[in-house]
Amino acid sequence: MKDKHFETMAIHAGGGRKPDNSLNDPIFLTSAFTFDSLDKAAAAFAFETEDYVYTRGNNPTLRVLEERMAALEGGGGAVAFASGMAAISSVLLSLLKPGDEIITHRMLYGSSQDFIKNTLPQYGISSRLLNLTDLLSLESGITKRTKVIYFETPANPSLEIIDTRAVCSIAAARGIKVVVDNTFATPYFQRPLDLGAHVVVHSATKYISGHGDVIAGIAVAKDVDYVQQLKFGYLCEFGGVMSPFTAWLLLRGIKTLALRMREHQANAMAVACYLKEHPRVGKVYYPGLPDFPGHALAAAQMSGFGAIISFEIKGSLEQSKALVNSLKLFTRAVSLGDCESLVQHPFAMTHRGYTPEEVEEAGLSPGLIRLSVGLEHKEDLIADLDQALGRM
Ligand SMILES: Cc1ncc(COP(=O)(O)O)c(C=O)c1O
């Protein structure tokens, strides 16, 4: 299946023959699996067979999802988790031990930043937040203790683009593992494993689901031994396992991932171009805009620019709040990647943990507005922004 196009793999990759000639993969809502004999059970426990034992370890619906995601990301295997944060925290704890250090990009999804900055130190793991768009700053920031480099590209919510191939080659020369959060781009627009990353993590809650009805996470790696270790040494022990029903909904969502991403992006480009021209709008952060600082790099390492836009207005924080409040079609909500267009204020909501100094150092405004451009008609989305900006 790996030689097939993305759209084909999104529908067919993973799994084997389905029971009772079912077209779709069934949902195996069972905690445990039965054995004809104790010998068969012992063989399964010893990993001598692929028989299922218990859904916290594996389940046929989860396995199809893991195989499909591995195919789409170009990995050797994948592990499904109960949430993006379960995937991120398990992956990081699997690669770090007391005394180690992790380097991350200065702008990350708020809970990831919180976990790295405030939780990992409780286990003797220190962190350093750097500007990873500056490779010299990365190189000079690496120490003997650095074991992992972690970033999102595009970053949430600054949309900065990190040169994944360059970071991976710096890391590989020093035996450091690179973990990339691919939530914004999805494997349809970018495959970090092909650029040298060790692990890709996802909040599958977002575009992978596409319908805003689950909380889910996935980690994918080329190294199958690492995937086994992550599954049976961390997922199984920490217990942040995905429900088979969630996996089934994700499999349904993934079938249309390519179509959705193309349409999301076309809408986002139209919205970004509209915002760019509006006299009341200040900076527009969207990698698809030719004058965006990361545009050339995004064009080189991605096959599309995604559909998250951040922007600032020429006005006060209060005016930016009023603008968000006066939107009618864009829904005020966290999350992203749904059919519905969503709007939020990251530094008042998902990224509250950032200090005003950190926000300023990243060159962002506390009134930054983040849009997740959905699948409604672009003219309706632009009309909504137009009426809200017109009230300013
Ligand atoms: C880029 C990114 N990574 C990770 C997460 C965490 O994922 P989850 O909410 O599924 O735990 C989010 C959530 O918004 C996110 O935006």
Q: Can you characterise this structure?
A:
The protein is an alpha/beta fold. It folds into 2 domains: 6-254, 3-Layer(aba) Sandwich (Aspartate Aminotransferase, domain 2), CATH 3.40.640.10; 257-390, Alpha-Beta Complex (Aspartate Aminotransferase, domain 1). It is built from 15 helices and 12 strands. Helix 1 packs antiparallel against helix 3 (60-73) and helix 3 runs parallel beside helix 10 (244-254). The N and C termini lie far apart (53 Å). Pyridoxal-5'-phosphate (PLP) binds at residues 83-85, 109, 111-112, 152, 156, 181, 183, 203, 205, 215, 217, 335.
Defining traits:
2 domains; about 400 residues; five-stranded mixed beta sheet; binds pyridoxal-5'-phosphate; seven-stranded mixed beta sheet; alpha/beta; about 15% strand; Aspartate Aminotransferase, domain 2; Aspartate Aminotransferase, domain 1; single chain; about 40% helix; globular
